[in-house]
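Example pasted here:
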Amino acid sequence: MGIFAAKKDSESKTDMLVITSDKLNRDYEPIGTVSVASAKISSDLDVFINMLAEKAKEQGADAVICFRYHLSGAVHIAYGTAVKFK
């Protein structure tokens, strides 16, 4: 296990839909932008997707669309649009 290896924790998996597209097969209403930033050393994108999903749930979202991920120096940034299904 190297420095960038991450232990998988099945309990931390989110059941929220997080996608890069804005195309869904159902109507939705945007709530707003949701973002997280972390200096956590991990190559496991699921860690940041789960953090983003948890923050979106706090806003009452059902899904996150237009998901983007960026690494700036040592800071990981994940963001997207939180949406509520109609």
Notes: The helical segments are 45-58. Residues 50 and 80 are 13 Å apart (CA to CA). Residues 1-11 have pLDDT under 50 and may be disordered.
